[in-house]
Amino acid sequence: MPKLLHIDSSISGEQSTSRRLTARAARRWSAVHPGGTVTYRDLGLHPVPHFDAVTGLARMIRPEDRSRAQQLSFALSVELVEEIKRADTVLLGLPLYNFGPPSTVKAWVDHLIAPGISIDAETNAGLLGDTEFIVLAARGGGYGPGTPREGWDHAEPWLTHALSPTGLEPRFITAELTVAGSNPAMADLVPLAAISLGQAETAIDELWATDQAAAS
Amino acid sequence: MPKLLHIDSSISGEQSTSRRLTARAARRWSAVHPGGTVTYRDLGLHPVPHFDAVTGLARMIRPEDRSRAQQLSFALSVELVEEIKRADTVLLGLPLYNFGPPSTVKAWVDHLIAPGISIDAETNAGLLGDTEFIVLAARGGGYGPGTPREGWDHAEPWLTHALSPTGLEPRFITAELTVAGSNPAMADLVPLAAISLGQAETAIDELWATDQAAAS
Q1: CB distance from B141 to chain A under 8 Å?
Q2: Which residues does B67 contact at the CB level (< 8 Å), separation at least 6?
Q3: How far is CA A37 from each of CA A26, A80, A153, rounded to the nearest angstrom?
Q4: pLDDT for the residue numbered A216
Q5: Interface of A with B in 25-54 (CB under 8 A)
Q6: Which of A175, A43, A20 is nearest to A111 (CA)?
Q7: Is the pTM of this model over 0.80?
């Protein structure tokens, strides 16, 4: 049975564009994969702990020497990695906060980058390359080529680089200018925001088209 | 009396290059500012909480409508911003983890970006521009121009952009290749690592030279 892992990280609840996009993608996936199972994780409501000084050393010492806090931290890393290994497809909702990822997504990634779990400790080969990884990104402003803030989205390029040792390769579907409707200074951009959202939704609706064709 | 705020975020304790550099800079500051006072915050040992879904809304609702958790989150944002306003100089130790900042530094910045506290809610002017901000950065690999991983340091450019609404402008002093000595595959890079560390230390030792000259 095909398996989907659906992860949200927005702190904006029902106002969230990234949550709206992951929900749409999950519905699309379920329609194309009847009988598939979905696992859900909410990093915005239930963040994973920071990879802090107490737990960080867990990776560098022998299992039998780990403190209780270190054992728990290591077990969480294993749980998060296994969740991905079990999935055929991962959907991640990725809002842009202060020009970077949510700190909860950074903490999640810090747990995922783990030699011996997600990376072969001998060969350095990534062990998560069999999982499809689709990122539904949302950003309040405009960051396209030629705009004043081109290059200020530090979440997408970082995520690609950070996960590269594991073999996970994000495919981004991004809606931008998401705050245009609520920011009077951005009123002129409302039509562009609608186009961006529409393009993202179309891209979602075309996901797994090949699977569908192969199945029919 | 001049005031210094010294912040570390590394999870590596005494092995940390960024902690070694902030300690050197704090000693230098104290030597140049006799009678100055130093406040210390350790984000690696005592992380600030993620800016999560429960607390994120605290910024958007009236103070009298805030839940207890929202009140505490907002009070923490105020505390972190006031700590910077009180300081003449902030030192931040910034290690690079998985090509980005520690999640604790992201969470700290998310708390700092607060209209009405660090940003004038009417004019959008940054309110922290009077504080000098020196970042002592350390990264395990090499990221300079022409290297294979040029552009993979997503912490420094992000930090500059993220804090720009507050008026805080980071000046970076960076030591790189810090893991060369412990990674056999990087043995050839040990001499370059030593040069990079030496250059960072020299840059630290030359900080506040103008103040010193003016005072003598």
Answers
A1: no
A2: B54
A3: 11, 17, 33
A4: 47
A5: 42, 44-45, 47, 50-54
A6: A43
A7: yes
